[in-house]
Write a structure and sequence with these properties.
By secondary structure, the protein is an alpha/beta fold. It starts with a strand and ends with a helix. Helices cover 33% and strands 17% of the residues. Strand 1, helix 1 and strand 2 form a beta-alpha-beta unit. The protein has 2 domains: 91 residues, 3-Layer(aba) Sandwich (Rossmann fold), CATH 3.40.50.720; 186 residues, Rossmann fold. It has a 7-stranded parallel sheet, with helices on both faces.
Length: 308
């Protein structure tokens, strides 16, 4: 019997597809870490989202484990080095939610620069302020994309038609961009961009990369977007840069204050309330990759990779 341990609810189509392929699903969506050992011992595969960290110690309790399937794009909650050392294959599904992320990022940007969400909240409070909510047009601006993987390229695709100059930096690639995107180095991107959008994975190298020093290199008072992972930037540094006039606005789907499960925020510092209530700030609760279509898409991608 080939048992798959499902540590999170994932996608019904994925689970049904695995059962049809002959696997037995052991659904332990809410079982705490300390009670998993009997279930880990028999598992040949693990399905996970972000509820638990897959550590080396946990992998030691799964001697028959062959693969881990992460329904999502980021895999920072999995010890990849420990998995590779044990010959365990790691599958993720960034292809499945790239459209959702690309569209959400575009929506964040348009809402921020044309003050859509903010002015809507004012109208609901009985205010009808026109001049105070004057927008800023994208046409003719330079949009810098940091990280040109599935998500960065999805955003770039949706920028076509807005009349922008799209530039991109990716430390680990070259010759990757289509005709409508110019490859540049990071300093050039920071110096030239009117909009900067972050699309990098969370790794020891990228953790906290957007800090005071990083933001000081921005040459055109840009709008700053992040739909990747919260801990790649320091929110307080963004708030200080916004107050100092180094940034024109900030749109975030992720925060460094998020719980490790990505469900809610940790203890919030004193400045955070002012940050959230600033009209130049737009924040959504880590939903960029979530759409009615993205979960089935990610399930299809993951099923194909597991059964390949």
């Amino acid at each position: 019997m080939s048992v798959i341990l499902a540590l999170d609810s994932t996608d019904a189509g994925l689970e049904t597809g695995l059962e049809r392929a002959g696997f037995t699903l052991n659904r332990q969506y809410f079982t705490p870490l300390e009670a998993l050992q009997p279930h880990l011992a028999e598992a040949v595969g693990i399905l996970v989202r972000s509820r638990l960290k897959i550590t080396s110690d946990l992998l030691d309790q799964a001697p028959n484990l062959q693969w881990i399937g992460r329904l999502g794009s980021g895999v920072e909650n999995i010890d990849r080095t420990a998995a590779a050392a044990r010959g365990i294959v790691l599958h993720s599904a960034p292809e499945g939610n790239r459209t959702a992320v690309g569209e959400h990022c575009m929506g964040l940007l348009l809402s921020l620069i044309h003050r859509i969400a903010w002015s809507n909240s004012e109208v609901r409070q009985g205010q009808w302020l026109r001049a105070e909510n004057t927008g800023w047009e994208l046409e003719g601006s330079t949009v810098g994309i940091i990280g040109y993987g599935h998500m960065g390229s999805a955003f770039a695709e949706r920028l076509q038609g807005f009349g922008v100059n799209a530039i991109a930096y990716d430390k680990f690639k070259s010759g990757y961009s289509p005709n409508h995107v110019l490859e540049v180095d990071l300093d050039t991107l920071l110096e030239r961009s009117d909009v900067i959008s972050l699309h990098v994975p969370l790794t020891p190298e990228t953790q906290g990369m957007v800090n005071t020093e990083f933001l000081a290199k921005c040459g055109r008072q840009p709008y700053f977007l992040n739909t990747s992972r919260g801990k790649v930037l320091q929110s307080e540094a963004l708030w200080q840069a916004l107050q100092n006039g180094q940034l024109r606005g900030v749109a975030l789907d992720v925060l460094d204050l998020e719980k490790s499960s990505l469900e809610g925020l940790e203890n919030q510092p004193t400045w955070f309330s002012d940050f959230c209530n600033d009209p130049r700030v737009l924040i959504t609760p880590h939903i960029a990759g979530w759409s009615q279509q993205s979960f089935p898409k990610m399930g299809e991608v993951l099923l194909r990779k597991i059964l390949h």
